User: What shape does this take?
Amino acid sequence: MRLPLIEAGQIVTTHGVRGEVKLLCYLDEPSMLSEYRRCCIDGKEYEMESVRVQKTCNLVKLRGVDSMEAGQSLRGKVLQLYREDIPQDLIFAAELIGVDVYADQEFIGSITQVLDYPGNSVYVVKGKYEYMIPAVKQFILSIDLDHNRMEVSLLEGMRTDED
Assistant: This one.
């Protein structure tokens, strides 16, 4: 299911005295955040005047947040991006939770969890049985978020109760 807002990171502290905030980035690469101009924090829309990468974090200057005190008031808040600003072919783990999964046109369950591992993510699918399906093209045949459907190819051993 496509979500209207995607969590991009959490504001952890301020940076400097002009309201810039430090964001612990949730995106695959912190540099991805610089592709967007607007965000939402606590239901309020902000324009991102600048975004800089600092190691695994971002330094973000928001229009209207012009002092350390104003930046400090955002500490602990989650910065979200508008889904409509993000390319449709980018799919986020949060959007996959609850997607119905089919193997050979047969419903096998819904995604309940996305596990991140160094090589690739793994989708946990629960139905009559539980499956752990690697998120690679070999097994994920198609994803249609608009119809809440994923087609997969299963191999022996993906079902967690198989010997």
Q: What stands out?
A: Helices lie at 68-72, 93-96.
